[in-house]
Amino acid sequence: MSQAIVNLALPVVTEKIDEILEHYPAAPHRETFTSMDVRQKLVAYVLTRMPALYATVEDGGTCSLSHPELCYSTEQQRRMKQLIHQGIQHLVSQRQLHRETLGKMATGNAQLTPSSWFG
Which terminal residue of the chain, N or C, has fewer Cβ atoms less than 10 Å from its own Cβ? Predict the structure, then answer.
């Protein structure tokens, strides 16, 4: 039998993110995460807050590459879902704040124009 050491977190987190985002409204949540950059930030948000899970996988074991979610306990899966929801809210609110800031700057605040800095 062959064995391999596998980091199971990334495929499980990615799959859970897809499942959870299906239940969010299209705007602004799903639209925000169509960008691969923002989606990667969400994955990083979750992975940095979870312990890494490595497994030695043998052919025919219950913890397998085809179903890596089986390697997580119910509590770990609950925590992962909680972190995904927190990450979604954090990134969506961060993105909205960024848009509002850009909108205020675009309206033409005279005090922010470089020509007024130098007299």
Answer: C
Number of domains comprising the chain: 1
Q: Judge whether 113 lies within some domain.
A: no
Question: CB within 8 A of 53, min separation 6: which ones?
Answer: 7, 8, 9, 71, 72, 76
**Dihedral angle computed from the Cα positions of residues 94, 97, 101 and 103, in that order, rounded to the nearest 10 degrees:** 120
Give the CA distances from residue 39 to residues 18, 25, 92, 111, in Å, rounded to whole numbers and listed in that order: 10, 16, 11, 36
Residue 119 falls within a domain, yes or no?
Answer: no
pTM: 0.70
Structural domain that includes position 58? 3-106
Dump pLDDT digits (tens) for 68-98.
Answer: 777 788 898 899 999 999 999 999 988 888 7
Q: Is residue 118 part of a domain?
A: no
Asked whether residue 10 is domain-assigned, the answer is yes
User: Nearest-CA neighbor of 85 among 33, 8, 17, 30?
Assistant: 17
65 SS3 class: coil
